[in-house]
Each structure stands twice: as structure tokens, then as C-alpha cells.
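Re: duplicated header lines in exported C-alpha cells

Our pipeline writes sequence and C-alpha cells for each protein into one text file. With two proteins the header for the second block appears twice in some exports. Here is an export where it did not happen, for reference. First protein block:
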Amino acid sequence: MAYLGKTRDFLLHLDASDETFQRAHVLRHSMTEAEKLLWAALKNRKLDGLKFRRQHPLHLYIADFYCHEKRLIIEVDGGIHNKSEIREHDENRTAEFDRLGITVIRFTNEQITQTIDKVLEEINSHIQSMEFPNSPSPSGEGVGG
């Protein structure tokens, strides 16, 4: 069997295109100061022992930070995200990820650069509150029950 380059796990990338992978590569090398600060706090399993990936190709999009184990995306939004058309795009993108069973949480650049500890507490709190896919529901029934 011939090796044709990197193989891509469908579940990890949800069939992202080659173009999306190329854009993600470029974005990894041009992160904002807020993204760099958050990445320093997330990389190497520093937060709750979870693996985060930066500028991760996922379906039609690139997630700023993605934890596959928790199916969690963390987005870092600059001022451009205040524009109505960008906000609408963000809402549609979040709805698409929700449809795929992936949670999105957002922080502004200012939140990260000014209160990184509070941001990390909020992320950790969100992670702790997430239900596991096969855990019993509050009514005591399992998934599909």
C-alpha cells in the first residue's frame, strides 16, 4: 500500500476540504495576540488534561480552538464580529456546529487579553457542566431510552 501523505480522520475533521486545511495552516502562523495568549493556556493539555487543537479544520469551517473529546469549539472574536453580517455568519456557523453535536463558546479579544483567568474559569466551568454523550439524562434514562 502506497503512502500518499497525511491521512485525515473523518470524525476529527468532518470531511474538511484540502483548501480548508491549507487556510488553517496559514491561520496557525498568523494568530492574534489574544489567540496566542489563550493557546499558551490550552496547549499541552494544560486545561483539565484535555487536548485542544488550534485553527482546526472542521467541516466547512476552521475552529479557533477545538477539543474533540468534549466536542467543544472556543472562538476568539475581534471587533469585526460586531458587524451585523459577520454576526449573522457566526450565528449560522454556530447553528451548523450545534446540528453536528458540537458546542461553541465565544470570547472577545478583550476578554482574553484583560481577564484570561476568568476566561479559563468560564471554559473549565462549561466543560464541567457538559454531559457525556452516553450518560443518563436527569430523568434517569440513558440515550435512546
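Second protein block, exported in the same file:
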Amino acid sequence: MTDQSTAPTLVVGLGCQRGCPVSTLRALLDQALQAHRIGLSEIKALASIDLKRDEPALIELAEQLGLQMMYFSSEQLSAYQPQLSHHSEIAFERTGCYGVAESAALALAEHLANAPAKLLIPRQKYAQATLALACAA
């Protein structure tokens, strides 16, 4: 049994194109967690950019997993630019930040743990979606 107070805060940041199916997000999540031997039960919450607040697949994924979905503004996310593994000009043109998945994961991990966060799984891209996993101690 692990002591929850010492377990790192693991969160998933997600980005996706409009109309991305929830099955795509779920496949990307399952694949990333499996590859890094992380149990779904270890994930505390999901995050994305506030422009995606009404994206059905993100809402549905959070409901399926029973996890809270939190959204951050591009201003909040742009603070994490120096920590990103990948800078997407397209993401910047569309959202005002260079990487939604990584930035959102870092922002949420820091927010929940009230401690500095780092990327555990850098940006993974699959079909119309991106995913990153961040942790904070």
C-alpha cells in the first residue's frame, strides 16, 4: 500500500483537434501509460487549454475515467514554454502557447502539488491528439 501523501502527483495534459473522437484520446492515454508502466489509478487529474473547455472528447474522457478536467488560459500555459520538449508554431498560432499538452500537464501538476513539476512523458502525438504526463513531488 502506498502512502498518498508521498506519492508524486501525476497528471495528464491533453491537446486535440476539434471533433477528435474520445477513442483516440483513450488509445493515446492507454498506450503512453502502458509504455511507461504507470497505472491509470495513479493519475490524479487531466488538463488542457481553456479554448477546449467545450470539446466533447475531453469532457467524455474525464467522465469515463472519473477524473477532474482542469483548463488553463494560454497566458497561464505560456509560462511553461522554457520546459517544453517541443515548440509547435501551429499550436502557437491557434492557441497562443507553443505546446498545449505539455504546458497543461506542468501547470496542473504544479497547481495540485504546490511544487515544481517536470515532464515524465514528453509530448506524444497520435492522430488528432497530443498527450504529456507531468509529475510533481
